[in-house]
Amino acid sequence: MNQRVLGLAAVAAAALLLSACSSGASDSGASHPTAAAAKAPAGLMQAGTLSVCIDPEYAPLEYYKNGSSGDVVGFDADGARALATYWGVTPKFDVTSFDGLMPALNASRCDIVWSGLYQSEARKAIADSSAYMQAGPTVVAAPALAAKLKAKDDLCGLRVVTQSASANSDDVAALSKACEAGGKKPITQSNYPQTAQTVLALINGKADALVETNVGAAYIVSQNEGKLAVAKNVFPSETTFGVFTRKGDKLSEPVAAALKALYTDGTFAKIAAQYKLDPASLDVSQ
């Protein structure tokens, strides 16, 4: 699976304006206010402030509200705002390149990293993390077809588009071979280097279905309401997104406890619904 879904900003330029994600959230408050329920924990680098390293290039988890400027919005950004509100502190976003997120955390440039990072073994070796969402591949298609797709075998014989050099592409190629081995028609697969190109191939009728990461798929569908839909549960979720703190940091346990509280009180579900993410994908158990 891709570490990030690339090219989603280009999708916005090629499709409808994302009206569902037009919240007025700013650094000063959460989109879904939660009454302060816990004192600010020890360990914040600056008293009264929660600093968050984030790379706003991964809609709908984190992206600029105005495309390339303005407030950083998305599930992760609003989740961080909710966490700050829960502790009664002010959120402050430190925009950081994707490959610089973990180095910035361990250099104490921020308190936490909340930016669509998987809980990989490599990351868990150098930082603590608390789960908040399950991720995995999913299928996007025209609504009528999406409603019929219930299992991976339902893709046999279809024209499926994926992003080049992605794990999704490899999964579809392997599935095509399994289709043939099971006596079914193989998948006719096409690949494009950018996510925007895969979406356009689907919209223009060059493919029947697109296999994409579930969070990216939610954004793509929100850009094309009525034209595209997600076929749920075709593939299992296989990866967990986490909020990262420094290894052994005083914040690690309070972050985990706060995420569970915000999940339990429904705050995360409300934020997920705003960005058209399936609340069932939320997971704070790990």
From TrEMBL:
InterPro entries: Solute-binding_3/MltF_N (IPR001638). Residues 49-279 form the Solute-binding protein family 3/N-terminal domain. The keyword Signal applies. PROSITE patterns: PROKAR_LIPOPROTEIN. Keywords: Signal. Residues 1-25 form the signal peptide. It holds the Pfam family SBP_bac_3. This is Transporter substrate-binding domain-containing protein.
